[in-house]
Amino acid sequence: MKKPGSMKSLEEMGRARLSENFFLRDFLHSEIASFYGMPNIPDDPELAIEAGTQLCETLLEPLQRSFGRLHIRSGYRSRSVNAFGNRNRLNCSTNAATAADHIWDMRDAEGCMGATACIVIPSVWDRRASLPGWQSLAWWIHDHLPYASLCFFPKYWAFNIQWHERPVRRIHSYVAPAGLLTKKGMANQAGSHAQHYQGFPAPGRGWSLD
Predict the structure, then answer these.
(1) pLDDT value of residue 210
(2) Cα separation of 41 and 38, whole Å?
(3) What is the DSSP track for 87-123?
(4) Which of 74-78, 142-146, 192-196, 201-205 has the lowest mean pLDDT?
(5) Residue 207 predicted with pLDDT over 90
(6) CA distance 184 to 173
(7) Helix locations, 23-177, DSSP H
(8) DSSP helix/strand/coil, 56
(9) pTM of the model
C-alpha cells in the first residue's frame, strides 16, 4: 500500500481494520496537525497497519473487554508532524526517540517495530475515589498484558501504552507519586501484584455490578 495521494485514497486507508473494534482512522487525529494545517498521514501505511494491529489486538482489545470503552487521546504521529512538534516544543520527542512509538511507520535504531497510543479508561477514572491510585491500573496491566512501556499523566489518568517487538516493561508516571514504578531489574518486576488492584475485573470479564 502506497502513501495516499488523494482524499479518496486516504479515506480508504483509514478503513483498514486493525482489530475487532479499532480502525486506523481512529488513531490519525492530531491536535498539532489540525491546528497548524498539516497532514498526519503514514509514509509507510503497511508498517503503520502492521504495528497498529499488534497494539490493538494485544493491548487495546483486552483492555476494552475488561474495562469498557476506551477513549483514544492520541495515536499515530507522522514524521513531519512529530518533527514540527519537537522543533516547536509541543511535547514531542525527536523522531529518533519516537520511532516505533508514536511514529508507527518508522522502525527504531535497532530495526524494531512498535506503536503507542495515549488512552483514557473512563470506567477506571470514574472509580478513582475508591481506588488506591493510578498504580492499581498500572499493576493490573503489568500482570495481565504484554505491554512494552506505560507512562501515566494527571488528567483522567491518561496513559501512553506501547506495544514493541522488544518490550522493556517500564512504567513511569507524572501523577503523584511521580517517577519510575518499575523496570526490568527491579525487585518489584516479578510475581503477582494483585494486592494493588483488588476489585478489578478479571481479564475479559468486565466490572462486577456495584
Answers:
(1) 53
(2) 9
(3) HTTSS---HHHHBTTTBTTS--TTS--EEEEEEE-HH
(4) 201-205
(5) no
(6) 16
(7) 31-36, 45-55, 61-67, 79-87, 95-98, 122-126, 134-144
(8) helix
(9) 0.95
